[in-house]
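Quarterly update, task 2.4: NAP-bound model.
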Amino acid sequence: MKIIVIGGTGLIGSKLVALLNQRGHEAVAASPNSGVNTLTGEGLAGALAGADIVVDVANSPSFADQDVMDFFTTSGRNLLAAAAAADVKHHVALSVVGTDRLADSGYFRGKIAQEKLIRESGLPYTIVHSTQFFEFLGGIAASAADGDTIRLSPAYVQAISSDDVAQAMADYTLGAPQNGVVEIGGPERVRLSDLVQHYLTFKNDPRKVVADVHARYFGAELQENTLVPGDDARLGAIKVDAWLQAQAAR
Ligand SMILES: NC(=O)c1ccc[n+]([C@@H]2O[C@H](COP(=O)([O-])OP(=O)(O)OC[C@H]3O[C@@H](n4cnc5c(N)ncnc54)[C@H](OP(=O)(O)O)[C@@H]3O)[C@@H](O)[C@H]2O)c1
């Protein structure tokens, strides 16, 4: 099958393109780097011509509230219209576990809008909700840093490696459209503040994490289980310590 991966040069996209090609499909990465821009529509119709499946793993280059909203709504409309015109049989998108519980966050309001456009598009679709990637822990620390102090919620998380995300995305991409949301998460449930402290300590980063139940996660206060997937979630195999060791060995 011909599969177009929007954002196929990114962290998840590049691994997904490789996996789908290994499985014998014709997977093509599409992004501004290859002349396909979902924001402007440039190159979209040509890229999607003859495609059976479209996977959207693009992300907004700016996390400012209005930029994120503009990115996911404009890109979503352009992409879904092009997918419908190309008679695509499955539209797959990657979003975040708990998105619907995070409307106080500008980033997540953008993801909510993106998901709504997909649900209302009339296209057969699967929305994959993933928990936080291990690769994003440094970004979470940076987002909550004030000098040497990082103030984070002690809410639970179940972070996952990007390799496990890509494997799950490949399976859902090649499976039947779910016309709904499926969830994936990591194998261990720990507190966000503890996980980021563990990450920093491993990296010999001297900054300290302070647990604060009112600390906002990209603008939203978290309840204990806001970021945790449900009981039916598919769980990745790679634990954080194995991932940290593998990173350090590179
Ligand atoms: N980070 C997490 O913990 C987490 C957790 C769950 C879900 N997610 C979701 O996972 C998705 C992918 O994240 P990621 O970390 O793999 O992203 P990433 O590495 O930042 O890659 C972003 C991709 O989007 C592409 N892109 C940017 N602007 C574009 C445009 N105008 N048109 C088409 N493509 C564009 C980029 O292309 P260029 O290379 O050409 O710039 C790049 O390929 C996001 O939707 C995010 O919400 C993330």
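Highlight for this quarter: The chain has a mean pLDDT of 98.
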